[in-house]
Amino acid sequence: MAESGGGGGWRDSYRGMSSDNIKGLVLAISSSLFIGASFIVKKKGLKKAGATGTRAGVGGYSYLYEPLWWIGVTTMLLGEIANFAAYAFAPAILVTPLGALSIIISAVLAHIILLEKLHIFGVLGCALCVVGSTTIVLHAPQEQEIGSVLEVWNLATEPAFMFYASLIIGAAVFLIFRYVPQYGQTNVMVYIGICSLVGSLSVMSVKALGIALKLTFSGTNQLFYPQTWVFTLVVLTCVVTQLNYLNKALDTFNTAIVSPIYYVMFTSLTILASVIMFKDWDRQNGTQIVTEMCGFVTILSGTFLLHRTKDMVEGSPVILPVRISKHADEDGFESEGIPLRRQESLRSP
């Protein structure tokens, strides 16, 4: 009797994934495949272009004439479109952490195609990312039923989220005007902090815009609501800000430092924003929430292990300083490390 009751309790807490969550999951995984592969294709294009012209690492633009590089850019854009669509179907707490899967794709393809050695601990890092992603997928909350962009607007203008958004904007402005001039070039947390803070708002706006477009394509036009265009304006403003300060971070600090720190801060703040705005955890019990957090920590562990392993393979010091200059590989090309979804999507060529 006890076992039967326990089994029933487990089934009550987990009723399976909804059709929208499954669509979002497929789109998120497809996005990781495209973005992970795009990094490899672009690097092959850079190497091929550098063999006959001036390398990008020393200011050349010969890669613009290389079809392989453009194929990589196109693949990356397809991945970003799939990622955008995923937010329209599934909660951010499911979609955002799955960005770590692009790390696995890049690491495996780099090992096979670019002949970059994947250390045994790198394999363990990949396994941790898979386990963590699977845990989150199996326990992610069901997507909230929304029938109009006005409902999203009401969620965004509730006092709790307005308070969160005010704190985020205030903190970002404070960092930009107070700390960027003094510490931007010496402390990696300044630029990454701005990107992560603004990024959490951009994802909420992307999700709102995605829902509006999904409803429009299904026959319920949302384009005549001014709120749809307000969300669009917020998306553009946040993305431009992210692009600016992420490029500053990548230009100043080593990617092996920027990528994992940015992933942790961006994903954590995005999950927090989604929990406040869309009340994801209100539809879950304590066991599911704790399990999701364990899955997230597992992904973080795999991400850090992959980046630390890359440094071990390349012979870099085990302990990295806060600021470290970028280095080039044996062919003279900038070593960009294994990309994360947001980093690769926002970084300029």
From TrEMBL:
Subunit structure: Homodimer.
Function, as annotated: Acts as a Mg(2+) transporter. Can also transport other divalent cations such as Fe(2+), Sr(2+), Ba(2+), Mn(2+) and Co(2+) but to a much less extent than Mg(2+).
Name the UniProt record assigns to this protein: Probable magnesium transporter
Entry's Gene Ontology molecular function annotations: magnesium ion transmembrane transporter activity
GO cellular component: early endosome; plasma membrane
Organism: Brassica carinata
Predominant location: membrane
InterPro entries xref list: EmrE-like, Mg_trans_NIPA
